[in-house]
Specification:
With 268 residues, the protein is an all-alpha fold. It is built from 10 helices and no strands. It folds into 2 domains: 48 residues; 218 residues, no CATH class. The chain is 81% helix and 0% strand. Helix 6 runs parallel beside helix 9 and helix 8 packs across helix 9. The longest helix has 48 residues. The radius of gyration is 24 Å and the shape is flat.
Length: 268
């Protein structure tokens, strides 16, 4: 229907004026070209997210099977995400110099994680920590519930995009929705009861805060939720899956959040 209306509109302009018809035809062509280009780029970015999911599944199989000769082909697929990252090129060179035929697949994956991905993990961890602290402090200070919710959602979305870009994925507008959806699904699958139990322990257990305050508890709870979202975002975007040894933990960020809240309370 849109195509028919556009055709009729341009035809009508030609009937009125040849020059005017050409102008509107050029505008239609430009808009159509821009729309197709943006759609193609969005498709490529969404497809990249799907590629990461497949790489994670392949990585899990390699680590579990722990055979020989398959990991390098897998690693070379991951390096394509970082072709335009000069700071990673040096770490890749060190990795390739370290690898030998005697290493089995699990060792190759572990070395790649240590030499190449570890620094990205640390950068992503800093992003998650910063956003979690900001969320906790804002919610503690603010008295406007609806504004807290909007800003928390915005920070979480921005955090997920930042983490994705660090790991070599620029999700774009539609890809961001897909990535946010995947992270939220992971949170749901983690178990509501587990999250509730963790939150209660982290907020009131072990003498976390000596000041009994509903605002502080709300800030801490919101900060921990943001941290949990960030952890799942890292897991969703990292092409080589984390192992139990290097998987980031919410309890590590919890200490950072508590420190920032204590500092804010002491200053007030």
């Amino acid at each position: 229907m849109l195509l028919v209306n556009t055709y009729q509109f341009v035809t009508q302009q030609y009937e009125n004026s040849y020059i005017l018809g050409n102008i509107f035809l050029c505008l239609v062509m430009i808009i159509t070209g821009a729309t197709l280009t943006l759609s193609w780029r969005s498709y490529q970015k969404i497809n990249k997210l799907q590629t990461i999911t497949k790489l994670q599944q392949e990585g899990e199989q390699l680590i579990a099977n722990n055979s020989y000769g398959n990991a390098m082909r897998y690693v070379n697929k991951i390096t394509q995400f970082y072709d335009q990252r000069p700071e990673i090129k040096t770490r890749l060179e060190h990795f390739y110099l370290t690898i030998s035929d005697s290493h089995h697949d699990r060792e190759v994956c572990s070395l790649f994680s240590d030499f190449v991905l570890k620094d990205i993990d640390q950068q992503a961890y800093k992003v998650v920590t910063k956003r979690s602290q900001e969320t906790a402090l804002w919610v503690m200070i603010s008295q406007i519930a609806w504004l807290d919710t909007i800003l928390t959602l915005w920070r979480n979305t921005r955090m997920i995009r930042d983490v994705a870009e660090l790991y070599g994925t620029k999700p774009g507008f539609f890809g961001s929705f897909k990535l946010v959806s995947a992270v939220m699904q992971s949170l749901i699958y983690a178990g509501v009861s587990e999250m509730a139990a963790d939150s209660v322990t982290e907020i009131v257990g072990n003498s976390v805060l000596s000041i009994v305050s509903a605002q502080v508890a709300q800030g801490l709870g919101s900060g921990l939720l943001t941290a949990r979202v960030g952890m799942y975002a890292m897991q969703a975007c990292r092409p080589l899956p984390f192992t139990d040894e290097n998987k980031p933990k919410v309890k590590d960020i919890r200490r950072e959040i508590i420190g920032s809240l204590k500092g804010a309370v002491n200053k007030s």
